[in-house]
Design a protein that fits this description.
single chain; 297 residues; binds nicotinamide-adenine-dinucleotide; binds magnesium ion
Length: 297
Amino acid sequence: MTDRLTMQDPRVQYPRPPFPRQPQPVPGLAVEMDPKPDHGEESYQGSGKLLGRKALITGGDSGIGRAAAIAFAREGADVTIVYLASEEPDAREVIALIEAEGRKAVPIPGDVTDETFCQSLVEQAVAELGGLDILVINAGHQQSREDISRVSSQDFDQTLKTNLYALHWITQAAVPHLQAGASIITTASVQAYHPSATLLDYATTKAGIVAYTKALAKQMIEKGIRANVVAPGPFWTALQSSGGQPPEAVMQFGEKSAYGRPGQPVEIAPVYVLLASQEASFISGEVYGVTGGAGIA
Ligand code: NAD
Ligand code: MG
């Protein structure tokens, strides 16, 4: 493969559909995916932008969160990752990659739909890292359902608890530990702006994440803390193959993007690095779309 940073046509830089059929139970594992996503394992090069920073990333075991975790470690940060206990095989790989950079890696398995766990994960991260400078809220739950009649209260609860309540619980626990210069980054979606018919509950949470983060950014200014949103388009992650899309749609995933392919997680990592770093000193309350050409407006 050509080096990731060599000048080239981005439309053909990474795999294009069709992909093999590959349904998985929730939460999906990156290790089960074909083709393997590029989270930057071999390809992300750091340049000291986050030297000595202490980061916490929810859903840091796989997908977009894993790409951010690898990039942060290569930029010089110590990183805590939070994930579900069943994702241990993915988490082990990320921990090894962070430690290979000579950085501290703190694994915290648990379920963010539990308020007490959200509070304790922040306390554990702060204790083990010796503080907190970067908070990335990225854990997410997405299940595609054809009709409104199929979205039970239990489904609605699971999606809202994972995507919205956990954002509030973790951020509320983290803010007292953050100092001026710290950065909060949330992960919304193009779904906040262009909701799919099959993602009623999910799209609702993603619009909520945008509103929450913009309000939070206004509140944080007097503390010198920045807050921003990343809004991904289609990315090749286990979220999609574990019910985020029907199995047949996963086989064509990314086809309808302007590039005709999904993004690879490493292609969004530089935005998290920018927003986490002091390079983004004048950037707060913003939404960064990373959609492969379609845009979020
Ligand atoms: P992913 O499945 O690799 O990551 C999501 C992570 O969320 C999982 O690894 C899991 O650790 C975590 N998670 C889910 N439920 C949890 C719970 N109850 N407790 C603790 N952790 C939990 O998929 P991804 O695509 O990298 O998703 C990351 C974020 O990106 C999500 O917020 C998702 O909504 C968003 N996003 C993804 C896409 C895409 O096309 N992949 C597009 C737009 C937005
Ligand atoms: Mg995962």
